[in-house]
Amino acid sequence: MHRREALKNVAFLLGGAISASTMGVLFESFTLPENEKNFVSYSLQDEKIFAEFADVIVPTTKSSAGAKAAGLGKFIPMMMQDCYPAKMQESFAQGFKDLQAKSEKDFSKKYLELTPAERTKLMIDLRAISLAQKETKSEENKDLVYFFTTARDLTLLGYYSSEIGCTKAREYVLVPGRYDGNTKLKPGQKSWAT
Amino acid sequence: MNLNINLKEENTYDAIVIGSGISGGWAAKELTEKGLRVIMLERGMNIEHITGYETAMKSPWEFKHAGKLTEEQKRTHPVQKRDYPYQEANEKWWVNDLECPYTEDKRFDWYRGFHVGGKSLMWGRQSYRFSDHNFEDNAKDGHGTDWPIRYAELSPWYDYAERFAGISGSKENWPLCPDGQFLPPMDLNVVEKSVKARIEEHYKKERIMMIGRTANLTVPHKGRGNCQYRNLCSRGCPFGAYFSTQSSTLPAAMATKRLTVRPYSIVNHIIYDKDTKKAKGVMVIDAETNKEMEFYAKIVFVNGSTLGSTFVLLNSTSEAHPNGLGNGSGQLGHNLMDHHFRCGASGEAEGFDDKYTYGRRANGIYVPRYQNVNNDKREYLRGFGYQGGASRSNWQNDVAELSFGAGLKEKMTKPGKWTMGLGGFGEMLPYYENRVYIDKTKKDKWGQPVLAIDCEYKENEKKMRVDMMNDAAEMLEAAGMKNVKTYDNGCYPGMAIHEQGTARMGNDPKTSVLNKWNQMHEVKNVFVTDGSCMPSIACQNPSLTFMALTARACDYAVKELKKNNI
C-alpha cells in the first residue's frame, strides 16, 4: 500500500470521534517517513543461502551448534525487511546478488553448491575486499561490502540472542536470584549471555 | 435535570489526582489513607501489576528483533527513538509521537509514557536526597528564586518516603548527599571496591564513591519481594522488587477502598470558579471516545509529569486567570531544567582476569557532588555527580576486524575485559527564558493544542561538561585504570528524563507559582507536587524528592481541608 493511503487508513481507524478539522491537523502533525516502504523480499531459496553464509561466520563447534541451527537463515532477511530503511535494503539486496555472482565467477557454481572450503575462501575474499574498501572508499564493491558487513553484524546479533547462542555457546540464567561481584573465574567458564 | 444532578454527584470526589506516576501514586495513597475519597485520572491505558508486564519473563530469544526497533516503530516514534529507553521489550509503554506532537523551538527530547503508573514503571530508580547546599544554592548565587524550604523541613518526609518505598543504600555521612532510612546496600563488585579504595585514598576522602542508592529492594519489604538480579526492571517487575505505582502506592491506596482509578482520562483543563476563587474540578476528554466530561472535588492534585502538568495549568484559562491557572507571576512555563549528562570517561581494569560476577545487578556506583564546596572551587556554579560502574564485558576488543569462523566464536563466548566507567550528571541552572508555552497552530489526536518547548543549555553547563570528562579521567587514572578515554556524546534537554521546573515554588507570589506547601499562591485548593514545582534541580536524581514533597503537601492539604481553610 502506498504510504499516504496507509496513513489515511490509520486516521479512519481512529474513528468518527475525530472531526474533519482535527483530521486535517492530524496530517500536518505527522512526520512523514523519509523513505517509501521497501518491498525487497527474499525467497525460501534465499533463506538457505543466508543460513549457509551465516554458518561460515558462526560455525558449529564442539560446544554448540552454529548460526544455521540458530535460525539465522530466516532472521537476517526478516531483520532487513523490518528494521532497515529502503536505501539500505536496496544496497543489501544488490550485495546479496553480487555475492551469488561472485560465486559463479570464482567457482562456476551457485552459492549453495560450494564446498565448505570454497565458502570459506569466498568469505576470506569478502573480508579482504571490505577491509580494502574501508581504506580506499571506492564505489566499486560498495554493495557487496555493505552486504558482508551487515550480514555479519546481523549474524552475530541474531546468534548471540538466540536460544542456542545464549544457552549453549554462552551461559544464561533467567532468574539469578542474587548478586556476587567477586566470583572466581573457573577454567573454561563461558561468558554470561546477558 | 435529575439526571444532571446525579451525574454531578457521581462525578464528585473529595480530591482529584491528575496523573498516576510516581508523585500521582503517592498523592492517591496519602489522600486516601487520610480518609479522602479520591479519583486518580490517568490519560493512558491501564497496566495491571504483574499480569500487565507482558515481556517481564521473556528471554532474549523470545524477542523477534533481538531488541532492535523496526522502521515502523521509528516512523511512529520519531522522538522516543532518539535514545535507548524506547526499546523492543517495553515499546508499548512509550507514546506514539504522531498522536501527541509538540513543537521544538530548540531540540528537546520529550519521553512520555501514557499509562497507569506512568514513568514509575520505566524509571532509573536511583534515589538521592537533596542537601542543604541544594536548597540554598539559588539564594547564594542568585540564580532562580530561593527555595521556600530547607533540608530540615523535608528531612522527616524523606524518612517517610524511604521507609515506604524501600531504598537500598549505604550510609556515607556526606553532607551533599544526606543519608536516609536505607535497606541493606547492594554489593560493589571486586573492581569497584578497588576503585573506591584508591579514589578515596588519593583524594583523602574529599571525594567518595558508593553503591547507588536505589528503589530496588535488597530484602523483602512490606509484602514485596526482593530484587532477583535480573536487571530487567524497565519491563515491570513480577516480584514487585522496585518501587512503582503498581507495586507500592496503588495497592496501598486501593486497600483503603476510597480510590477510583480512571484510565483513558485526559485532563484538558482545571475548571475555575470565580466566586469561590477555587478550582471546582477538571474537564476530561475520554481518550477512547473523545467524549468530554467533568469531575468535581474539593482539592486537585496536579501530578501529570512536569510538562504534562504545566500544559494543563497553561490550558486552564479563565477571565480571572487569562494566562493560565495561578499564573499571576508570569512564571508558569518558565525556568525549565533538565540534567545534562552523556559525558565522562572509561578505562580498563587490569589484574582481575581471574574474577567474574554472578547475577545482573540493577544498580551502579555513585560519586556524590564534591565541587564548589570547601576548597574545591570551579569556573562555574553548582556541580555534578557520577554514576557508572565496573563490569566484565563479553565482547573481545582484540578480535581481529571483520573476522569470522570458529576463532571468532570461541572468543565471543569467553569473558572479556573488565572496564570501569564514570558518567557525569550535572546541574542545570534555572533560566527564565528556558520555557514552554501553548502552540495553538497544532493539534493532538484529541483536538487539543500542543506544547511548544524552547530550552537550551548555556555557558555554565558547557563549562561544567569539560570537568565532567576530565575529573572522571583523573579519578580513573588515580584508581589505576588503563587506557582511560574521555567522551562527550552530546546532550539535549529532555534526554535525562529529569525535566523539572515551569511551576516553581517560592515565598513570593510575584515570582513563583506555588508556595512552600506546593499549593498555588492564587488558587488555594490546587497543589502541584511533581517535577514542575522545583525551583532548582541539584545534580541528584529527583524522584525521591517528588515523593517526599508530595507526602508533605498531602499532609498539609488534608489538615487545611479539615480546618475549612480550603
From TrEMBL, chain A:
- Listed Pfam families: Gluconate_2-dh3
**Top-level taxon:** Bacteria
Q: Name the InterPro entries for this protein.
A: Gluconate_2DH_su3
Q: What is this protein called?
A: Twin-arginine translocation pathway signal protein
Q: Which organism is it from?
A: Pedobacter paludis
UniProtKB/TrEMBL annotation, chain B:
Which keywords appear in this protein's UniProt record, sorted alphabetically? FAD, Flavoprotein, Oxidoreductase
Q: Pfam families from the xrefs?
A: GMC_oxred_C, GMC_oxred_N
Ranges for the Glucose-methanol-choline oxidoreductase N-terminal domain? 99-339
Q: What GO molecular functions are on record for this protein? A: flavin adenine dinucleotide binding; oxidoreductase activity, acting on CH-OH group of donors
The UniProt record lists the keyword Flavoprotein: yes
Q: Which cofactors are required for activity?
A: FAD
Protein name as catalogued: GMC family oxidoreductase
| Provenance organism | Pedobacter paludis
